[in-house]
Design a protein that fits this description.
The chain has about 200 residues and is of the alpha/beta class. It has six helices and nine strands.
C-alpha cells in the first residue's frame, strides 16, 4: 500500500511517554512541541521533552496554541516559554479552540507580525478548516503546516505547504495517538529548511 512518511511528530503534555531513540532510528527527524497556549498556559512537559528530543539529535520546534485573547499577551507568553531554549522552529497553531475563546484572523496576523519583528523570520502556521477559511494574505510569507487525514493527497488549498499532518493517531513508527506529518518541500532537505528557519526568541 501507499505509505506516508513520519518525518515530523508533534507532542504536548497529553501524549505521555515517547521513545525518542526508537523514533529517530525509524526515520523521524523532527519534533514540534507545544510550548504555550493563550496568555497564561505553558505546557508543563515542554522543557523535558525538548531536552530528550535534542539528546538524540532531533530537529526541534515549538508551537503556541492561539486563542481569542490579546495577541501581544499571547506572544509574550510564547516568548517566555521558549526563552533560553536555543534556536527553535516557531509555529502558530490556528484552529478551533475546544475550551475557550476562539482565535481570529486578526489575532493570527498580529502574532505573526510580532514573531517577524522579534526574530526576522515568519513562523510556520498550522491549521486545517479554520486556516483554509482565512484569507491567504493574513499569513502570507508563512510556511504552512496543514492537517488532512484519511487522504492520499495533501490539502490543495495550502499554497506554501511545508508539512502535511496526515494522521492524528500514530503510524507504524510513532506511538498511538501521536500526530504524524510528512515534509512536503522538494527543493530543499528538511534539515536545511528547518535550521534555516529556526530562531532564538527571547533571552
Amino acid at each position: 500500500g501507499f505509505a506516508m512518511r513520519t518525518d515530523v511528530i508533534d507532542l504536548s503534555h497529553l501524549n505521555g511517554q515517547v521513545e525518542f531513540h526508537a523514533l529517530y532510528a525509524s526515520g523521524t527527524r523532527g519534533v514540534i512541541l507545544k510550548c504555550s497556549q493563550g496568555t497564561g498556559f505553558k505546557d508543563p512537559a515542554f522543557d523535558v521533552l525538548l531536552t530528550r528530543a535534542k539528546s538524540v539529535g532531533m530537529l526541534v520546534g515549538a508551537y503556541h496554541f492561539l486563542d481569542g485573547e490579546d495577541p501581544h499577551s499571547q506572544f509574550a507568553n510564547m516568548k517566555a516559554a521558549v526563552a533560553g531554549k536555543g534556536a527553535l522552529l516557531l509555529c502558530l497553531d490556528y484552529e478551533h479552540n475546544p475550551n475557550g475563546s476562539q482565535p481570529t484572523p486578526g489575532i493570527l496576523s498580529s502574532v505573526i507580525d510580532l514573531c517577524v519583528e522579534a526574530s526576522g523570520r515568519h513562523p510556520v502556521v498550522y491549521g486545517s478548516n479554520l486556516l483554509q477559511a482565512c484569507a491567504a494574505n493574513v499569513y502570507a510569507g508563512c510556511p504552512v503546516w496543514a492537517a488532512r487525514y484519511e487522504s492520499l493527497n495533501p490539502p490543495s488549498w495550502a499554497k506554501e505547504l511545508a508539512m502535511w499532518q496526515w494522521s492524528e493517531d500514530g503510524s507504524v513508527t510513532a506511538p498511538k495517538g501521536v500526530d504524524c506529518s510528512q515534509f512536503e518541500m522538494d527543493d530543499i532537505a528538511m534539515e536545511d529548511w528547518w535550521n534555516g528557519r529556526a530562531v532564538w526568541l527571547g533571552a
